Request: fold
Amino acid sequence: MALTKIGDAGMPAGSVLQVVQKHLVNTQESTNSTSFVNTSLTQAITPSSTSSKILVTVSTQSVTSSSGDFGLYGLNRSISGGSAGELGTGENFAANAQSGNWQTIHISFLDSPSTTAATTYTLRFKSYAGSNYVYHGWGSGKDGSSQIMILTEIAG
Reply:
């Protein structure tokens, strides 16, 4: 009986081939830009096949400096250090409410990069109206927040 290694072409569609994670703690970033700006939550993965899918999962925290504005979140992808492109044609994947209270943001997106080159995903954020600052992540020390990006390669 031959053994099949993870990443071999013989893995059935839907099999998990690899998982990588970026975990940030005690990191806070802010913007009042109405155009997307990169956060520090970024992670690379090198797919083993051009037919692989990449499941991008993000968990973070967000707040606006006061009510009357809200933060919007998106994702982009860059292949082998090339120019970055917005996933989902630049749509907003998540938003915080106009409450002025911290909220947890969760994003899941299944991408088809069609490459075996290093592929980097980055969480981006912006202010809807630009009238207030949007904050991403909070705190320091043991009371700081965790921001997580998990990239899962799935056989196509």
